[in-house]
Write a structure and sequence with these properties.
80% of the residues lie in helices and 0% in strands. By secondary structure, it is an all-alpha fold.
């Protein structure tokens, strides 16, 4: 494991500890500080979940793609920028009067973290675009399922697109806080479903065949899940964004596309369960 990958993993564990400490403080103190709540949420989502996703991708993408990693230097730059951005965002929020009083350091740190994401995406794209290695990288996970790998790349690729949308939206909130009540659900769902969940779908579709030594139970089900997950998310996002707040049209749109998203989740659970049980067959 390379140093920058280890750095992301160590960082995510530190943020997990920080999240736990802040959560305990929130419960024990009985604080009603919204800034503290936002700090806890972002310490967990950006510090723990997002950082571990970065670390895992830096480790496995060159292995699965058979390509040389483009730039370790950019990966270290990403690591430093991301940590500076997260700490500069989370720590001042604890003591702030968010959203009415947002410190300048929080705004600047959010921009820095957003730029670090662009560094990550550029590094990944250049890795994917590089020619295949003449000597394949040792893959400790086995050969897996090539059809599932192609499908999984769709999930991981589109998740990066959602990250590109969701992160700048969060930065916008810090500079234009009056939009928070209207677009907070959009920001949350694009990041949690679009980036985190869909990235997990893609990585697991890469890994499960290697865990079981068997192909994915059904690649067509995985493809259907891909389209339904994206349709449901985009439909919910547009329902929040376009329709009048708390109107009947918005309510129907959210119910309809939420149900589509739920069906996608059920398909993933079914496909994963059948895949993992093939080992015992």
């Amino acid at each position: 494991m390379r140093g920058f990958t280890l750095g992301f993993i160590i960082s995510c564990l530190v943020y997990l500890i920080l999240t736990a400490i802040l959560g305990i403080i929130f419960l024990v103190s009985g604080s009603s500080s919204y800034g503290l709540v936002v700090a806890i949420v972002h310490s967990f989502l950006l510090g723990f979940i997002t950082m571990i996703i970065f670390g895992v991708n830096y480790h496995i993408i060159p292995i699965f793609s058979g390509k040389d990693f483009y730039s370790p230097g950019l990966a270290y730059l990403h690591l430093v920028m991301a940590n500076l951005g997260i700490t500069g965002l989370v720590l001042p929020l604890i003591f702030s009067g968010y959203p009415s009083d947002i410190p300048v350091i929080v705004k600047l740190s959010s921009v820095l973290f957003a730029v670090s994401i662009l560094v990550f995406i550029y590094n990944m794209l250049r890795t994917f675009m590089s020619p295949p290695r003449t000597v394949p990288i040792y893959n400790p996970f086995g050969h897996g399922d090539k059809d599932a790998d192609k499908m999984a790349i769709r999930f991981t690729g589109i998740s990066i697109v959602y990250l590109l949308i969701g992160c700048p939206l969060g930065v916008m909130f810090l500079f234009l806080p009056h939009y928070i009540p209207y677009l907070r659900p959009v920001h949350a769902h694009i990041n949690l479903i679009g980036f985190v969940s869909i990235m997990i779908f893609g990585v697991s579709y890469h890994m499960f065949p290697r865990f079981t030594g068997s192909p994915i139970y059904s690649v067509p089900i995985g493809r259907l899940q891909f389209y339904l997950a994206n349709l449901g998310l985009i439909g919910m996002t547009l329902s929040w964004w376009v329709f009048e707040r708390e109107s009947s049209v918005q309510h129907i749109g959210l119910l309809t596309f939420g149900a589509v998203e739920a069906v996608a989740a059920v398909l993933y659970i079914y496909n994963s369960w059948k895949t993992l049980n093939q080992r015992q067959a």
